[in-house]
Specification:
The protein is mainly alpha-helical and 173 residues long. It folds into two domains: 2-92, no CATH class; 130-170, no CATH class. Helix content is 45%, strand content 5%. It has helices spanning 2-11, 30-34, 37-44, 69-81, 97-107, 113-123, 130-133, 154-160, 162-170, and strands at 12-15, 56-59. It has a two-stranded antiparallel ribbon. It is elongated, with a radius of gyration of 23 Å.
Length: 173
């Protein structure tokens, strides 16, 4: 969570509109990040537009300014690689370089974003299964409600549960 805040802090900039929402000497915006002080002062002397366009925060790593989850993930990896974030990029999984190919495959899938996010959550073991909810203080039995034969983990539900195995068989996967 804290890493996410740091990535956003480093990745967002103000896009100038009417200039009313920006503290040009304090807030991160394009002039501060790519120009020296003399050039920045020249740019700051340019009169603002008379149109009433509001200032807005934009993602600095896309032309459109829109945040993309896949680029946010890559930003985290790059920031870890160069030491701007704690930890290392190898710490995401125990697979090291092989994991890069897995994540590139997932983020490159031509499926809705929610499917990619689901796969990401599954591989990071953060789906709200009963086994994952118990350490978070949810008072429930961890037994699979479908088969009552094993603890409810993502692997069990999607790969090993006899009830879901019948479902997968019926869908001809």
């Amino acid at each position: 969570m804290l890493e996410g805040r740091e990535v956003l802090r480093k990745g967002i900039r103000w896009r100038m509109g009417d200039g009313k929402g920006i503290d040009i000497w304090k807030d991160p915006w394009l002039v501060n990040s790519v120009m020296d002080n003399d050039d920045a002062n020249l740019v700051l002397a340019i009169p603002l537009s008379r149109q009433q366009i509001r200032d807005r925060l934009v993602w600095n790593h896309t032309k459109s300014g829109n945040y993309l989850t896949s680029l946010g993930y890559l930003s985290v990896r790059n920031m870890k690689r160069i030491g701007e974030l704690g930890g290392s990029c190898e710490g995401d999984t125990s697979m090291g370089m092989r994991s890069d190919k897995i994540w590139q495959s997932i983020w490159g899938l031509k499926v809705p974003p929610r499917v990619r996010n689901f796969l990401w959550k599954w591989l990071h073991n953060v789906l709200p299964t009963k086994v994952n909810l118990r350490p978070r203080g949810v008072k429930i039995e961890d037994c699979c409600p479908l088969c009552n034969s094993a603890p409810e983990t993502a692997e069990h539900v999607f790969l090993y549960c006899p009830v879901t195995a019948r479902f997968w068989y019926m869908t001809h996967w």
